[in-house]
Amino acid sequence: MPRDFTPKVVTANALIEGDVVYLTRDDQWTRHMSEAELITDEAESQLRLLMAQAQTETVVGVYLAEAKAGANGPEPVHFREAFRRTGPSNYRHGKQAELTDV
């Protein structure tokens, strides 16, 4: 029996910088998951994924990540996505120093 569809965000890595990025409703890439488009329809998620995968000059490693609605926008459901959005874990610098909800 197929599983029910869960909300998703389109995520990838910026081609030049390597930063984790998320697709917004207006087809832009943002480094903040809270600004990403939370997709609640399975067919729409596949269309958004295909559109993002075609942007080979901008991003690499495009995929759908499970997310949930939060007070300030989408939030990660799984540890992997929570870890990806903060960057390397060797010490608090850059994005890690900016985040207060991790």
In N-to-C order, the SSE pattern is EEEHEEHH
Specify the structural class.
alpha+beta
Kindly report how far apart the N and C termini lie.
35 Å
Strand elements, count: 5
Order of strands in the sheet with most strands: 3-2-1-4-5
Largest sheet: number of strands, sense, barrel closure: 5 strands, antiparallel
Organism: Roseovarius litoreus
Protein name: Sulfite reductase (NADPH) hemoprotein beta-component
InterPro entries: DUF2849
Pfam families: DUF2849 (PF11011)
Task: Give a quick rundown of the structure.
The chain is of the alpha+beta class.
Describe the structure.
This protein is α+β, with helices and mostly antiparallel strands and 102 residues long. Helices cover 24% and strands 28% of the residues. It has one domain (8-98). It starts with 7 loop residues before the first strand and ends with a helix.
Keywords:
24% helix; 5 strands; DUF2849; alpha+beta; 102 residues; 28% strand; single chain
Strands, helices and their partners?
Blueprint: E1 8-14, E2 20-23, E3 29-30, H1 42-53, E4 59-70, E5 73-76, H2 79-86, H3 95-98
Antiparallel strand pairs: 1-2, 1-4, 2-3, 4-5
